[in-house]
Amino acid sequence: MARSSLPGRLPRGPFSPDFWRSPLRGTWFTSVLGVVLLFGITVLFVTGLVSYAAYNPDLSPVNDRTPGKGILGFYLFSWPTDPPWLYRLTQGVHVTLGLGLVPVLLAKLWSVLPKLFTLPPARSVTHALERISLLLLVGGALFEFVTGILNIQLDYVFPGSFYPLHFYGAWVFFGAFLAHVVLKAPAAFRNLRRMRRGEDEEPDEDLTAARPDPPTVTRRGALGLVGGGSLLLLATSAGRSFDGPLRRTAVLTPHGGTEPGSGPGAFQVNKTAEYAGIRPDDTTEEAWRLTVTGRTGTVRLSRAELLAMEQHDADLPIACVEGWSTSDQAWRGVRLRDLAALVGHDEPAAVYVESLQAHGTWRDAALSAGQVADERSLLALSVNGADLTPDHGHPARVIVPAAPGVLNTKWVTRLTFGDL
Ligand SMILES: Nc1nc2c(c(=O)[nH]1)N[C@H]1C(S)=C(S)[C@@H](COP(=O)(O)O)O[C@H]1N2
Ligand SMILES: [Mo]
Q1: CA–CA gap between residue 382 and residue 393 (Å, rounded)
Q2: Residues lining ligand 1, Cβ inside 6 A
Q3: Are residues 224 and 286 in the same domain?
Q4: Which domain holds residue 89?
Q5: Residue nearest to atom 20 of ligand 1 (CA)
Q6: pLDDT of amino acid 243
């Protein structure tokens, strides 16, 4: 009756409750997905903060140019060098879990879609505040997932700016996430307990379709589909953190799939020498010199002179921010702390490392005194029993235990020890 008497004032399209017909929607479906995300996103947030700390962002602006991070950097700590596989683990979990949660996130957003269109837009001040926080929550979630995935799939679409974007986005998202959890988690857990006791789900007229279509799949079936999608994504990306047959299962993401050839240099390459603009003429025995500067002055060393210094071995992985990593490689070269001692730093000192690369992020990096002091931290000249290949950083590259790949500078040409 109201329909014919008030034609112009009836909500139409998605604003009409009749528009939403899926019988899957309801508090049970939303609660299950919500609880999975509660745990998953918490792990993403923690491993993300840890990943940020791993760049030595406080050490020097070359590592992190995030403007005014101020109090958001409150928790930063000095990144350890033990265990050497630490970043392999934390960043592998961060990226792989993030990919695996994509179907869950999409299903969760789909499940609450009708709420976006409820009328009136705000029933009370609390309701208005809740909806604004949802804007930050959904926007934040999409922003973090999209920037993260773009960064691993199309490496370096945000040259230099990925860190501030993803970092600030994370805090906005997590703030809204926390508010949402405080508001909604009790009801979600209550709902799950009701389910387990075989009771009906809590009603929610904004979620449950008023006039549902006949089901084509059960709610359990739909959850199975989402979970299956997640498992498929996990199974096709987790292999990037392992060698051998497992790596070949990582077909969906860069640096997985086929093994990188054979021979001593046959492990993943991030940027090739050609991509980084390294001219072969600049890396010859005659042309290349390492310039080491410190308290007592500057020393210039040829590769032959470096090889004449005491050589040390360290079995260490490369672990990239993009989530892939290698198993331990057998590096050999000069200890960073021996090079520090050459220029008067017998006490551990931080170092600013520069490469032959003229442009682009990660052409330079700063390492902490703790990293320099570790006896496994090398300026490596060879790997797996052979000279470094051009793509792995010939004539010399840094390798530091537990550090993110970006701090393992390739094609090194200058080391400056001292306070940064
Ligand atoms: N000069 C320079 N060094 C660099 C980079 C770079 O772009 N330029 N990339 C870093 C990154 S992001 C990673 S993951 C490692 C990869 O080392 P690999 O190619 O030997 O595996 O090198 C690091 N060293
Ligand atoms: Mo990397």
Answers
A1: 10
A2: 268-271, 276, 318, 320, 355, 357, 362-363, 392-393, 405-406, 408-411
A3: no
A4: 3-235
A5: 392
A6: 80
